[in-house]
């Protein structure tokens, strides 16, 4: 590798941009740009009045950060789990989202599915055929570059004061709850969670195996229920677990619920509206985010 002087980096940056536009990932260039991101993080330490050794967040310096794709894993025909190297100083709360794009053109907000303490960032992305961003992101290969917004946002965050947490998700709406549960698990928190995760098809339940294993490992913390709403379709052949809509199942479980409860829902707007009505009728505090 040549010395990392300004001219050499600029030339490689131009080559990287060309490679990204052509859809060809170049691991060497990806490594170089990761080094650039590290240098940016080091420079951030000297900005403003932060104490020595403090790496400021992206929001503190007010600009986007580059990221390198580590892996792209397909879940069924139209969902991808995109693992991205975490830029220096990047911080967020479990449940928050950040704008993601390719550096030029449009961006879209995606909830971060990894925990705040994880080394990499993970995004659970549904490919929308007519979309301007998701088809590009879900086709990225390892080593490809993307950009992350300066400041993660969102209020669908964990409420620690509740005794029981009802989490309702459809398909990729599992992302904020996976982030919360990974954080709770890593801290061995004493929270109790009932998570109902549904979809039309069994192959649109990302993280189902991981969360099933977590529920078996920490049953006092997590009860995880998966359900499909179209059990008779050939695509769901072999499904032997629960069937029905998420809101219908919640109505059944509410009979077992008492005390200090917090509800959350993420997914399609129809499910959210139905869950909101159920929680309102019971006086249960409710937070939500639509993924339509």
Task: Walk me through the structure.
- The chain is of the alpha/beta class and 292 residues long.
- The chain has 2 domains: 6-41 and 61-148, Elongation Factor Tu (Ef-tu), domain 3 (Beta Barrel); 164-290, 3-Layer(aba) Sandwich (Rossmann fold).
- 30% of the residues lie in helices and 25% in strands.
- The protein has helices at residues 6-22, 27-44, 58-61, 134-137, 175-187, 208-217, 246-253, 269-282, and strands at 65-75, 79-85, 97-101, 107-111, 120-126, 145-148, 164-170, 193-199, 222-228, 242-243, 261-267, 286-290.
- The strands form 2 sheets. It has a 6-stranded antiparallel beta sheet.
- Helix 1 packs across helix 2 (27-44) and helix 7 packs parallel to helix 8 (269-282).
- The chain is globular, with a radius of gyration of 21 Å.
- The model is unreliable at 1-7, 13-27 and 29-62 (pLDDT under 50).
The residue fraction in helices comes out at: 25-40%
The first-level CATH class of the largest domain is given as: Alpha Beta
- Give unreliable regions as ranges: 1-7, 13-27, 29-62
Name of the CATH homologous superfamily of the largest domain: Nucleotide-binding domain of ferredoxin-NADP reductase (FNR) module
The number of domains is 2
Cα gyration radius (Å): 21 Å
Sheet having the most strands = 6 strands, antiparallel
Distance between the termini: 45 Å
Shape assignment: globular
């Amino acid at each position: 590798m040549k010395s990392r002087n300004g001219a050499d980096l600029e030339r490689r940056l131009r080559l990287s941009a060309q490679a990204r536009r052509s859809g060809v990932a170049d691991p060497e260039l990806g490594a170089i740009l990761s080094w650039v991101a590290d240098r940016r993080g080091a420079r951030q330490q000297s900005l403003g009045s932060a104490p020595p050794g403090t790496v400021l967040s992206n929001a503190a310096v007010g600009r986007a950060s580059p990221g390198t794709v580590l892996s792209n894993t397909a879940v069924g025909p139209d969902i991808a789990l995109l693992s991205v190297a975490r830029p220096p100083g990047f911080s967020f709360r479990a449940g928050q989202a950040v704008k993601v794009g390719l550096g030029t053109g449009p961006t879209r907000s995606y909830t971060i599915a990894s925990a705040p303490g994880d080394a990499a960032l993970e995004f659970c992305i549904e490919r929308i055929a007519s979309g301007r961003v998701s088809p590009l992101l879900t086709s990225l290969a390892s080593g490809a570059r993307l950009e992350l917004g300066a400041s993660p946002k969102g209020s669908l965050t964990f409420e620690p004061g509740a005794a029981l947490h009802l989490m309702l998700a459809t398909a990729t709406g599992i992302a904020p709850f996976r982030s919360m549960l990974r954080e709770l698990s890593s801290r061995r928190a004493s929270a109790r969670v009932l998570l109902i995760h549904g979809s039309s098809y069994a192959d649109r339940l990302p993280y189902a195996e991981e969360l099933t294993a977590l529920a078996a490992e920490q049953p006092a913390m997590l009860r995880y229920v998966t359900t499909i709403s179209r059990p008779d379709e050939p695509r769901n052949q072999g499904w032997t677990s629960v069937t029905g809509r998420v809101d219908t199942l919640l109505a059944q479980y509410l009979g077992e619920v008492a005390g200090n409860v917090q509800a959350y829902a993420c997914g399609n707007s129809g499910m959210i509206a139905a869950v909101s009505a159920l929680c309102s009728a019971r006086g249960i505090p409710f937070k939500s985010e639509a993924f339509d």
